[in-house]
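User: Structure please.
Assistant: Input sequence and predicted structure:
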Amino acid sequence: VALLASCQQGTPAQGDAPAAKPKLSYEAGVMAVLQERYGSAVQLQGQWSQQLSDADLGQARAVHRDICADQSISVQNGNYRMLAICTSYDDASPIELGSTDFIVLRRAADDGISIAAELLGQGSGTGGKPGSVTTLQMGANAWGFQVDDELVVVGAAMRNRAWYLFDGNEKLSSAGWLRSHLDDRDAIDCNASGNCSHGRLDLNFDAVPDGNQAQLAYWPLRVQEKGRGCAGAVNKTHSVAYDSTQSRYLIPSSMQIESCD
């Protein structure tokens, strides 16, 4: 009897077993991941306010955040959710950038959630507010975040378009950018002799993924160049290929100009 009792001493009573954690629903799992990163104030719709420490100011700084893009996708037989979290800084200067975190969540067959890829703290925009974010398909096996923003430049109006691409390979790539609009006609350039002239650019590069060959893993960009460039009036279409070895579009420098030489 004593031997039997000693063998049973290390066996906890049935009532002492730790209770199993309840399984979270899919939406609750998404919220749990976001709350771990951004705190309990996070919400899937609408803005929330936070105080962030700022090393430059040496004190906390007020910001507003919101989920500015939300898209469920299927890539290479996997199910994912693309989220962009935009941060706007209160009391920002006109030239200060806003910030965006790009996150892709993996959805398991049992609705479990984990982070598949992320690219954090990407600056864009003006006045402390980031550029506008949309999601779009960029290939048979690729989706992307597209960011459109405007720059503050003396004498010129500039807008940029950038892409961040996800292809199911556990990586979000900064896939390139171009100058979607440039108008420098209010800029004045003076040479050493004191002769001055206005800028002459009023140019647009309208870029969209070209899905005409839908089976391609990565679609090229179809870019419509239109307006007045350095050599005069222009209206032509370009195709910009994606280089998978560099994880980016091969955008020529002529689509990123700031002025004419």
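The longest strand covers residues 59-75.
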